[in-house]
From TrEMBL:
Binds 1 zinc ion per subunit. It catalyses: hydrogencarbonate + H(+) = CO2 + H2O. Keywords: Lyase, Metal-binding, Zinc. InterPro entries: Carbonic_anhydrase, Carbonic_anhydrase_CS, Carbonic_anhydrase_sf. Its cofactor is Zn(2+). GO terms for biological process: carbon utilization. Zn(2+) binds at C43, D45, H99, C102. It comes from Flavobacterium phragmitis. GO terms for molecular function: carbonate dehydratase activity; zinc ion binding. This is Carbonic anhydrase 2. Gene3D superfamilies: Carbonic anhydrase.
Amino acid sequence: MRKFYEQLLENNKKWVETSLAKDPNYFADLAKGQQPPLLWIGCSDSRVPANEIVGAKPGEVFVHRNIANMVVHSDMNMLSVLDYAVNVLKIKHIIVCGHYGCGGVKAAMGHQSVGIIDNWLRHIKDEYRLHDKYLNSIENEEDRFNAFVEINAKEQVYNLAKTSIVQNAWKNGQDLMVHGWVYGLNSGFVTDLNVTISSNEELDSVYQLDL
């Protein structure tokens, strides 16, 4: 245990040395501030590293991660990140990225209690209820699982568009697009789910806020 911890510190030193060897001003420039064009909302899964997936450098991606890449309207952590990204950093793109093999989505499809996370998984179970006819029509369990991962990512795109933060940005003429992706753990490739929203007019009227 101690050896692993010490190795982390050693890895940091090597990373700093390598970065400075490439660019002596690397960290000095980073310290001046950030203006990333992208907010990434992804899963906490350790196998889904946002920057590496899209080949981005430090300072290019603002990141929020939680179990199953959820956008919950009462989650003040997520809303604070979203507000800062949209209103302070003026990001232009938000990507919700799910991933095949997501443990959170898998757990939401079952009935076993897994602790306090049961309360979080309830939000995912609600989505299954909305799409149960389609999902239950898929006989192969793995195919049904993959389809639900995709549906979950799409639903979070719509949940973002429903927020007053995003709708107010659109009202003020801010360029902002929200996209849905799914990442393949066994391939490294992302799949664009072709669900991109850039206006609240693309939502059902009940969600369109008069701001």
